[in-house]
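Can you give me the bound-state structure? Components:
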Amino acid sequence: MSALTQLGDNLALGFASALAPLHLLFGVIGVTLGTAIGVLPGIGPAMTISLLLPLTFGMNPVGAFILFGGIYYGAMYGGSTTSILVRMPGEASSVVTALDGYAMTQQGRGGAALATAAIGSFVAGTSATIILTLMAPVLVEVALGFGPTEYFALMVLALTALGGMAGDAPAKGAFATFLGLAIGTVGIDIQTGQARFTVGVAGLLGGLNVVIVTAGLFAVGEVFWHAAQPRTSREEPAALAGSVRLTGEDWRRSLPAWCRGTVIGFFTGVLPGAGATVASFLSYAVERRVSRTPEAFGHGAIEGVAGPEAANNASAGGSLVPLLALGIPGSGTTAVMLAAFQMYGLQPGPLLFTQEAGLVWGLIASLYVSNVLLLVLNLPLIRIWVRMLDVPRSLLFAAVLVFATLGVYSLNNNLFEVLVVYVLGVMAFFMRRHGLPLAPTVLGVVLGPLMEQHFRRAMAISGGDATVFLTRPVSAVILVVTVVVVLLPLLARTRYGRSISHR
Amino acid sequence: MSPDRRLAAVLIAGSAAYLWGAFHISPLSGQYAAVGPRIFPLIIGAGLLGSAVWIALPTQSGSELSPINWRVAAASAVAFLAYIGGLNTVGYLLATTGFIVLESRLLGSRTWTRDLIVSVTITAFVYVVFRLLLGLRLPAGLLG
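Here's the bound-state model for the whole set.
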């Protein structure tokens, strides 16, 4: 019982903070900005938060995290709008929504598709936040017993899972992960004061700031990539026929899809590596399987919109569980959020819940508020969101370069760091060209230095005995899970290949 | 040579350079530490080299490269470099206004007046947010 009353106290504290006028304003700015960037293809939450990191440096952390949380949730809402109306997904996590969403628009049922996406997002986002509220403190209790050995093992798991899932080949995911870890070793070793990989450049002694790395890889790299794409024309938004309302039949079909989407999305989000895009595809596959009319999918089945849109929102909530409770992100966006915590000198994890209870619970409470704000903002303003597509992309991307440059410059008033961003942007361009995923690299940069410290601490405690990672039970289990994560896709692939050749 | 092979050749060279650098870190460790500053980079170097070789393996399905507009990509990169240089010489206001007009033209915009108006607006907006609201410094140059 006392655990529940304490949870109540914490939530009350959090809501008092999240509903304070200034924080509420940050919440409104966050969800508005988040929806806008969700609508715009090519600009996602990871890029936006990394562009805002330098600007929020001087702000109080609670306000900044309420802003980031709003952007993260808002982007999940906004991604669906253009998927449904113009078959132009604003985010990768809404690609699958376009299949049935756009078909519904062509049949004049676009309004119903938008409504089931928005209400489903609200239901899933709120349910996921409730599970997050209940689950995080439990995980914190467990994690209190973790030492450097366990944290090292957890980071190995997170990096392996993300590296294995991202990109078009596991070999490329693996290289991208090690590349991030390698970038993280540049600079002075904090234990011995020795300079590593600085190649005689004084500006590299302090290491490559994660803010610089995320701005270079996510923002500048994205613009260079966009610049290099052959021009394509886009389809005009279809006239929004039909009211933005659900009929009784729509409700009956949407509700179970939302619930399944929520469960699938949340747990996919908690797992490292998978994330919102995998969650939405998984949910679509499940909906088609349980449907009595699977042949309707792709031709405007409302479940094909309701399930995936619920799933991608729930996964955002799920992905915050390991970030907040363990300090271990499993995706690009949460890696940037960990970078934000590090910028403030904070380390998420069990201690954050006791030392910075106001911050943690303020952020969690603001997620409930954001969901309500999004539902209120989203549907009535739908025509304005679609008009966002009229913003000329050329000016938008030029502005992104300006923001990235000035944000990084403002950190230390140092143009050398801007040049580093430029080099990383060019590197990101070639990585994308050759199918090397960027998210594992960013996660490697963010986790690498922590991982090395945990590794060296664990080895110091064990007196240099590397078997400690296998003799401590929790770390052994985590490492066994890591091996399973590596082997499972390979096994699935060979079995799949065999079943095809048998046919 | 397939694109993936060419990629792997570059990555193997880079990984070898990193590994070479890792070997040249002095292995001294702190008084209580069992592991010095060299072990972790060595592990990473081995991982880099291993996965680069893995990419080169013939069992990997080679991916096709999508068409690229090299002219625009290169021009954008040069324009951005010029912008960074311009910040240092002519300063924030001029460099930013000019860069946004130039870069949006490179990215396919064909309306000079609109671009100029938007460019001045963005420049002024960023100036207000950075300098006046957040109190951050912008590169001054000629026009402060």
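A couple of observations. Chain A touches chain B through 63 residues (CB under 8 Å). Residues 110-143 of chain A form the longest helix (34 residues).
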